[in-house]
Design a protein that fits this description.
By secondary structure, the protein is of the alpha/beta class. Among the domains are: 77 residues, Dna Ligase, domain 1; 154 residues, Nucleotidyltransferase, domain 5. β12 and β13 form a beta hairpin. It contains twelve helices and 19 strands. The longest helix has 25 residues. A six-stranded mixed beta sheet has the order 11-6-1-2-3-19, with helices on both faces. 48% of the residues are buried. α1 crosses α3 and α8 crosses α9.
Amino acid sequence: MGSPIVGLDIGTTKIGVIIGEVAADGSLKIVGVGSSPSDGLRKGVVINIDKTVKSIQKAVEEAELMAGVDVGSVYVGIAGDHIKSINSRGVIAVSRSDNEITRPDVERVIEAARAVAIPLDREMLHVIPQDFVVDEQPGIKDPVGMSGVRLEGDVHIVTGAITSVQNLQKSVEKAGLRVADIVLEPLASSYAVLEDDERELGCAVIDIGGGTTDIIVFVEDSVRHTASIGLGGRNVTNDLAIGIRTPLERAEEIKRAFGTCLRGGPADGEYIPVPGVGGRENREVSRAVLASIIEPRMREIFTLALRELQKNHYLDTLGAGIILTGGCSQLHGAAELAEQVFGMPVKVASPKGFTGLVDAASSPAHATGVGLIQYGLLRRAEGKDDSASPAKGRLGDLWNKAFEWFKRYV
């Protein structure tokens, strides 16, 4: 079986841990799931290391107990509105005298593409190859073996704030874990929820977490754009707590059990018991009132995502539409409201492609955690998995990562 592969989703409202093993047939088997409330982050960024460490330890212990294994190294998800991305192009002359393009040529063109100036307070997290151009012939996924004089390569570069990345890593290490790699959360989620034809046709994954809503765009089987919006499920909960005057914990429970994004439904006349704040008497609130509070905030989140896609001119390239995932995507009516805003097909996607604890791990809330394991599984298949040995450093080997993604999307 080998050592377990572990995904650690450090979110604003919850810490999620998924433990997976490689089955005899090479497939992924989920053997442990753990979660704990997150109390040390704001909008995906660590603001209290000690609280974050305790939350991580609690979630890991729960998953370890379920799986019966000890966790040593983890793939960690990162998100937040400090994440920025750019597309870049590199150009080189083919080195061989017979003009055959080799793997070192591809390495050189990717190196040329990533040689862009970024601010001193930021660092590269991912360099993801998109496609190549050989002597003005575009749209080539793998140019190795082709003949050409000039090779151009397009890459998608993801950067993060150095301090945010360092605080995330410190929290994980203080919890007694090694960091095998740090992975952009919507990138990980896409591993867990997307079909191959959705990547090819073009789609946008919108991962609605607790503190942020993260977006990743695929066009022609390549990552074209990533972005983050500083609103999420916690904003919906806060609105609800203020609107119906109830504690945050109870507002979260009511949101999950009775919340809806749609007004005018048949259940609008149903009344929900709501505990008062500070010992005040309980009251009853109709589901129509809940919808009148939840719908505007969810519409705002979708509208901001729409503007992000419009601003970067990707809206017309999404042949497969919008894929919603993340905990807040489970709200009743979320897909229907999103279809109104985006004007295209929308579906809510759950993680798939694994066996074992399917019921425990198949919620959209676990999309990032399962995706992190699938990321690690691919690295292990290619002999690049760091989880069974001491971590090589936070960024690991950028070139291995780049070629991993190159192979993944060819």
